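Recall the central idea of this unit: under ordinary conditions, the amino acid sequence of a chain determines the structure it adopts. In this exercise we apply that idea directly, starting from the sequence alone.
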Amino acid sequence: MSTLDNAYRVIRKPHVTEKSSDDMVKRNAYHFRVPTGANKVEIRKSVEALFGVKVLSVNTLSGTTKSRRRGYVAGRTQAWKKAMVTLREGDSIEVL
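Accordingly, the structure predicted from this sequence is:
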Protein backbone atom coordinates (compact mmCIF):
# COMPACT_ATOMS: atom_id res chain seq x y z
CA MET A 1 0.00 0.00 0.00
CA SER A 2 1.45 3.37 -0.96
CA THR A 3 1.87 6.34 1.35
CA LEU A 4 -0.84 8.36 -0.39
CA ASP A 5 -3.36 5.52 -0.10
CA ASN A 6 -2.75 5.41 3.64
CA ALA A 7 -2.94 9.23 3.86
CA TYR A 8 -6.36 9.25 2.16
CA ARG A 9 -7.57 6.65 4.67
CA VAL A 10 -6.53 8.87 7.60
CA ILE A 11 -7.73 12.26 6.29
CA ARG A 12 -11.37 11.64 5.41
CA LYS A 13 -12.68 15.15 4.73
CA PRO A 14 -12.27 18.75 5.88
CA HIS A 15 -14.49 19.81 8.76
CA VAL A 16 -15.67 23.27 7.68
CA THR A 17 -17.62 25.30 10.23
CA GLU A 18 -17.65 28.90 11.37
CA LYS A 19 -15.13 28.14 14.10
CA SER A 20 -12.80 26.23 11.76
CA SER A 21 -12.92 29.07 9.22
CA ASP A 22 -11.96 31.49 11.99
CA ASP A 23 -9.05 29.22 13.01
CA MET A 24 -7.78 29.19 9.42
CA VAL A 25 -7.35 32.95 9.51
CA LYS A 26 -6.25 33.54 13.12
CA ARG A 27 -4.12 30.46 13.96
CA ASN A 28 -3.35 28.95 10.52
CA ALA A 29 -5.11 25.78 11.77
CA TYR A 30 -7.23 23.43 9.68
CA HIS A 31 -9.83 20.92 10.91
CA PHE A 32 -10.29 17.43 9.44
CA ARG A 33 -12.50 14.42 10.15
CA VAL A 34 -10.33 11.35 10.83
CA PRO A 35 -10.97 7.72 11.84
CA THR A 36 -11.48 7.14 15.56
CA GLY A 37 -8.36 4.93 15.69
CA ALA A 38 -6.00 7.46 14.08
CA ASN A 39 -3.25 8.89 16.26
CA LYS A 40 -1.49 12.26 16.07
CA VAL A 41 1.62 10.90 14.35
CA GLU A 42 -0.43 9.30 11.55
CA ILE A 43 -2.45 12.50 11.11
CA ARG A 44 0.72 14.64 10.91
CA LYS A 45 2.34 12.37 8.31
CA SER A 46 -0.85 12.20 6.23
CA VAL A 47 -1.34 15.98 6.09
CA GLU A 48 2.31 16.54 5.20
CA ALA A 49 2.16 13.88 2.45
CA LEU A 50 -1.16 15.01 0.93
CA PHE A 51 -0.69 18.78 0.98
CA GLY A 52 3.10 19.26 1.05
CA VAL A 53 3.08 21.47 4.15
CA LYS A 54 4.94 21.46 7.50
CA VAL A 55 2.73 20.63 10.51
CA LEU A 56 3.61 22.29 13.82
CA SER A 57 1.01 20.63 16.06
CA VAL A 58 -1.96 18.28 15.98
CA ASN A 59 -4.82 18.40 18.49
CA THR A 60 -7.60 15.81 18.45
CA LEU A 61 -11.15 15.73 19.75
CA SER A 62 -13.31 12.61 20.01
CA GLY A 63 -17.06 12.88 19.66
CA THR A 64 -19.16 10.44 21.61
CA THR A 65 -22.15 8.58 20.27
CA LYS A 66 -25.64 9.76 21.11
CA SER A 67 -28.92 7.89 21.38
CA ARG A 68 -31.44 8.65 18.64
CA ARG A 69 -34.95 7.41 18.04
CA ARG A 70 -37.10 7.39 14.91
CA GLY A 71 -40.49 6.03 15.82
CA TYR A 72 -40.08 2.56 17.28
CA VAL A 73 -36.49 2.17 16.08
CA ALA A 74 -33.83 3.19 18.58
CA GLY A 75 -30.17 3.48 17.67
CA ARG A 76 -26.97 5.38 18.21
CA THR A 77 -25.11 7.91 16.09
CA GLN A 78 -21.67 7.10 14.75
CA ALA A 79 -18.58 7.91 16.84
CA TRP A 80 -16.27 10.46 15.21
CA LYS A 81 -12.93 12.17 15.68
CA LYS A 82 -11.76 15.62 14.61
CA ALA A 83 -8.14 16.74 14.15
CA MET A 84 -7.06 20.38 14.40
CA VAL A 85 -3.78 20.75 12.50
CA THR A 86 -1.67 23.88 12.95
CA LEU A 87 0.67 24.69 10.07
CA ARG A 88 3.94 26.57 9.84
CA GLU A 89 3.76 30.30 9.13
CA GLY A 90 3.41 30.84 5.36
CA ASP A 91 1.97 27.40 4.60
CA SER A 92 -1.70 27.01 3.71
CA ILE A 93 -4.18 24.44 2.39
CA GLU A 94 -6.88 25.21 -0.18
CA VAL A 95 -9.95 23.77 1.55
CA LEU A 96 -12.77 24.90 -0.74
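The two ends are 28 Å apart (CA to CA).
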